[in-house]
Write a structure and sequence with these properties.
Blueprint: H1 9-21, H2 26-30, H3 33-37, H4 45-61, H5 74-87, H6 92-99, H7 103-123, H8 125-128, H9 133-148, E1 155-158, H10 159-176, E2 180-183, E3 189-192, H11 194-208, E4 216-223, E5 227-235, H12 248-255, E6 259-262, E7 266-272, E8 279-284, H13 288-297, E9 303-308, H14 311-317, E10 325-328, E11 331-332, E12 335-336, H15 337-346, E13 355-359, H16 364-369, E14 374-377, H17 382-390
Parallel strand pairs: 2-4, 8-9, 8-10, 10-13, 13-14
Antiparallel strand pairs: 1-3, 4-5, 5-7, 6-7, 11-12
Helix pairs in contact: 1-7, 5-6, 5-7, 10-11, 11-12
Length: about 400
Amino acid sequence: MSATTRISYAQFAAWVQDALNHLYDSPRLQDHPLAGLLAEQAATHVQRGQNLRRLLINAILAMSPEPGTPAQSPDWRAYRILELHFIEGQPPGQVMKALGLGRTLYFKEKARMVEALTRMLWERRAELFSLEDAQAASLERDGVEELTSIQAQIERLSLGQVLDELCAMVAPLAQAKGRALVCMPADVDVHADRVLLRQAILDVIGHLLETPDVSVLTMEALADARARGVRISLQPASARPALPESALATQLMRLMGGEVVAQSDEIRLVWPAAGAPIKTLLVIDDNAGLIRLFRRYLTGHAWQVIGAGNLAEALTATAESAPDAVVLDVMLPGQDGWEVLRALKAHERTRRAPVIICSVMHQPELAAQLGAAGYLKKPVTQAQLLQALAALA
């Protein structure tokens, strides 16, 4: 592969996941696309695979928490998942037992850490791989612009009809891969773009057909008190779905105000159900553009955003009802965000709301010491905001 080859982040993330899953499979690593992109070219075929293995192991080790972090902290636990599973080669069940984790939390934390590892490698791509920053950034920007230029044509759709059409189309492919695809009849309607929804479902199915040990995929419409959409489950239950945060399905669902949720043995493409409880997020930031951005990020995610430029405006905005969470900037005109944080913790209407510090500065330890529940470093992506809010649950 030439040094001028353009690689998208989604493709890069898929390669990193595959290389991690085959870290000690020397023949696989020797011919791996990432090995061919290494900036440090190996003298022999064997050395190329060894260099890729060393790079990935060093990247995992670099994610270990800072010295002084308590051994029982969530940061150490999350890091140990990568160390035990990928470096030491322990199976998931053994890692869960060693760390005292349930299955759902294990796979959630593992996916989060793999994404963080991938992001770190991507940010250092020009240093580690033969990927030019300008070329890679250009391709990723082109992809983002193409997605953001899409105008979703929202209409009322019958999920049963959509799933029947897709099941008939994809079943032969599943059979060719030794899988069975089952479509459950249902009478559930959603408001979505038919083309975008079909592509999102097909993207998830494509990923799941590559998941090891899967024998049956079941697609069905989902409707309960909190959400409605599509559930794609796997059999046997021991098979675990893998879907990168950057997957096309995730981006398409966000364009339609929905989301992709990966659970223990299934993936859901859902929207909040009508009447689902809406939470209030108070954003205290003098940048009105950021408040508008967060409103756009949270469209369709059962959150409403109210904005304030300072503490006084925040208390006025919450006079009638207390917020469920607060995002607070540190650099406020004429105010120190840390003082605002202390004031919020002391005020009757806001003291119970968890506060996420959002700043260009990197001071998560100070934020935690002063009572913050989370930390976001600007600029903030939609995925980072959603992840921070999900961690409050």
